[in-house]
Amino acid sequence: MDWRESAACRTEDPELFFPLGEEGPSRGQIERARAVCRRCPVVPACTDWALLNTERDGVWGGTTAAERRTLRSREPAERRTP
Ligand code: SF4
């Protein structure tokens, strides 16, 4: 079974996970997306997918694009959701 089939965001509006930025009014949207991720059973798979595919936009596995840039700069063993 593909991890996406268990994603908590399957029933959410996809727009929630793609804020226009990471500051100001977008912070609230990011926190609402993270609240969905916190109850999701596939966070590690989702985060790994976003890192492997260099996903540059959106909230994946509860991480923002800026957080994933930081994670990509770390050694693989250190890569876990902040
Ligand atoms: S971790 Fe978040 S973005 Fe990833 S599948 Fe789960 S709910 Fe969706």
TrEMBL record:
Role this protein plays: Acts as a transcriptional regulator. Probably redox-responsive. The apo- but not holo-form probably binds DNA.
Keyword set, alphabetical order: 4Fe-4S, Cytoplasm, Disulfide bond, DNA-binding, Iron, Iron-sulfur, Metal-binding, Transcription, Transcription regulation
Pfam families: Whib
Coiled-coil blocks: none
Name of the gene: whiB
Residues reported in the UniProt entry to bind [4Fe-4S] cluster: 9, 37, 40, 46
GO molecular function per UniProt: 4 iron, 4 sulfur cluster binding; dinitrosyl-iron complex binding; DNA binding; metal ion binding; protein-disulfide reductase [NAD(P)H] activity
Biased composition (Basic and acidic residues): 66-82
PTM note: The Fe-S cluster can be nitrosylated by nitric oxide (NO). Upon Fe-S cluster removal intramolecular disulfide bonds are formed.
Record organism: Streptomyces triticiradicis
Record PANTHER family: TRANSCRIPTIONAL REGULATOR WHIB1, TRANSCRIPTIONAL REGULATOR WHID-RELATED
Protein name stated in the entry: Transcriptional regulator WhiB
Domain 4Fe-4S Wbl-type: from-to ranges: 8-70
GO annotation terms (biological process): cell redox homeostasis; negative regulation of DNA-templated transcription
Similarity section: Belongs to the WhiB family.
HAMAP family associated with the record: WhiB (MF_01479)
